[in-house]
Design a protein that fits this description.
Number of strands: 18
Organism: Mycobacteroides abscessus subsp. abscessus
Distance between the termini: 60 Å
Protein name: Phage terminase, large subunit, putative
Structural class: alpha/beta
CATH architecture of the largest domain: 3-Layer(aba) Sandwich
CATH topology of the largest domain: Rossmann fold
Helix content: 25-40%
CATH superfamily of the largest domain: P-loop containing nucleotide triphosphate hydrolases
């Protein structure tokens, strides 16, 4: 079988001796090729950046089309590739013996301003005019999409041999552009440029090449929008490329992070290339020294000395440091050293609160409740669902929590539902995280004279730790609702700049967990007691459970 004949390579793949012997000799006046590289690859005296990536995972294949693409690019742009650009193009356009792509999936993680866009532009032009591919290029920002469109358009307009094949050329503003051409094969093909959305590319019946640029903010819905049309292609390829993300700043980096994990695990049919400096030290002072080490700049940036220059990197660094914001320094590290903050894989992380050992034994279906209730509202990041939790003390001094509402609804419907609960229970307050997507509910409720507490970042951190501590010590009760248990099974944490932890709501739907956490905190902060609360449990045992489920917090739930 063809697949069995291929093998994984983790280092630079050189051209075979036969191809080396047939390489076209440089023309007179071309820069000297000291390493016998072809004339479409330049020799750059100032180039000191490391040309080999920090990580590479690829399979052996015929890289002739990579050379054809680089040669074609040299002819139409009069620009020679840097060695790393040429090597990357060869890997991307490598073919198996059956002429299918060796790497139908490509992951390129590259530091900022290295010339990655040239690779994409040449891949688009080569695919469009030579291979006859339908192509969809998407970016996170409209100005990025427009810039790539204009660059492709300028190259086409500068070459009569390409311009004469254009059937139509539209857009190039506000994040959309489209070019239709007659390819070398005689077929009429299209390339679309645009800002990502859930319906991008749906007008194309077949997509042979999908490019997700700025993939640090790529969602699964945006990927799925193009996959249907890719199925219709006999030989489709997908390129994911970006600088390394910073998870705290890029909440939708999980798709790109998942593709990178596949590369690190040496997954089949995948090309993975990552340019970065050696891993940073864990000690803060040592990390600072490594961050300022010019040798690490050189190792992280393959175009160092030609496109990226020490002077510019240094002044950008000073700006980040002078901001006195940890997030700005983290972004600089990701952009110029490749030190991203990658999210962990939730499939292999133990729950914050052990489910079997801790959470399930806390189930209490018939508690004796005392004091005021507190409501808390949260909303999923995709704005699809709302979660409402209620908390109240038990006679033993624990806090009993329950999720009473978790469904799709309009903001008006949720406001009306909360008002009904307020009329029924007269809770001490309604708690909403000031940074939660549920925050727009607050003005609605305040107009209806409903007391709302918007929590600060510091209070959110206190609420998280208090919730976890209460569960671990047995000072919390619940009714063993599957929706809450399932949320806790996948919920992960993230660290704030000062080291405090909070629930990470950027992956998955854990609005129910956040609502429960805030309800617990609200009871401790605002609810009056009808009887004295007991001291925190010393771990002598778990609340008694019963086999029947009882809605303990009111008929409205």
């Amino acid at each position: 079988m063809v697949a069995a004949a291929r093998k994984t390579t983790t280092s630079t793949t050189s051209r075979s001796p036969a191809k080396r012997a047939t390489a076209r000799r440089p023309k007179a006046g071309a820069p000297p090729n000291k390493q016998d590289t072809p004339p479409w690859v330049g020799e750059w005296p100032r180039l000191t950046g490391r040309q080999e990536p920090k990580h590479e995972h690829s399979f052996a294949g015929d890289e002739t089309d990579g050379d054809r693409c680089a040669r074609f690019g040299h002819r139409v742009t009069k620009q020679r590739s840097l060695p790393w650009q040429w090597r990357t193009m060869r890997k991307i356009l490598s073919r198996r013996p059956d002429y299918l792509w060796t790497h139908p999936d490509v992951v390129l993680v590259c530091t900022r301003q290295q010339g990655k866009t040239l690779i994409l532009v040449l891949r688009i032009l080569f695919g469009l005019f030579i291979l006859g591919e339908n192509i969809a290029y998407t970016a996170q920002r409209g100005n990025t999409s427009d810039a790539v469109f204009k660059r492709v358009k300028a190259i086409i307009n500068s070459r009569p041999s390409l311009k004469n094949r254009v059937v139509s050329l539209t857009g190039g503003k506000q994040g959309f552009g489209e070019i239709v051409v007659r390819s070398k094969l005689g077929t009429e093909v299209t390339v679309q440029f645009g800002v990502r959305s859930g319906d991008k590319g749906r007008g194309l019946d077949r997509i042979d090449l999908a490019i997700f640029d700025e993939a640090y903010n790529l969602t699964q819905d945006e990927v799925s929008a193009l996959q249907g049309a890719q199925v219709a292609s006999a030989n489709s390829q997908t390129i994911y490329t970006s600088t390394a993300p910073v998870e705290s700043e890029h909440p939708n980096c999980h798709v790109f992070a998942g593709m990178r994990r596949r590369g690190l695990k040496k997954d089949t049919d995948l090309l993975f290339i990552e340019f970065a400096a050696p891993d940073p030290p864990k000690d803060a002072l040592e990390r600072k020294a490594a961050r300022e080490d010019r040798e690490n700049w050189r190792l992280a940036e393959p175009s160092y000395g030609v496109i990226s220059k020490e002077r510019d990197i240094e002044r950008f660094y000073k700006t980040a440091v002078e901001s006195r914001e940890a997030s700005k320094v983290a972004l600089w590290e990701a952009d110029f050293l490749g030190w991203g903050e990658w999210p962990a894989d939730a499939r292999f992380i133990d729950p914050v609160i052990p489910i079997k050992e801790v959470w399930e034994p806390l189930a209490n279906y018939a508690p004796e409740l005392v004091g005021q209730k507190v409501l808390a509202v949260s909303r999923t990041r995709d704005l699809a669902r709302w979660a409402i939790a209620v908390g109240q003390r038990t006679i033993e001094g624990r806090v009993q929590i329950e999720i009473g509402y978790y469904q799709k609804a309009t903001i008006g419907q949720v406001a009306a539902y909360v008002v009904r609960l307020v009329e029924l229970w007269d809770p001490a307050t309604i708690v909403i995280d000031d940074h939660d997507p549920a925050k727009p509910l607050a003005p609605y409720l305040k107009k209806l004279d409903v007391d709302v507490t918007l929590t600060t970042t510091g209070q959110i951190a206190v609420a998280f730790q208090g919730f976890v501590d209460a569960a671990m010590s047995g000072d919390l009760g619940h009714t063993n609702q599957p929706i809450l248990t399932e949320g806790l099974e996948v919920a992960m944490t993230r660290e704030l700049p000062r080291g405090d932890k909070v629930w990470d709501d950027r992956e998955g739907s854990i609005a129910q967990v956040i609502a429960a956490t805030m309800a617990h905190w609200g009871v401790l902060e605002f609810a009056e007691e009808d009887s004295p609360a007991a001291l925190p449990s010393m771990g002598a045992g778990n609340p008694e459970t019963t086999s029947s489920h009882l809605d303990v917090l009111g008929a409205a739930f």
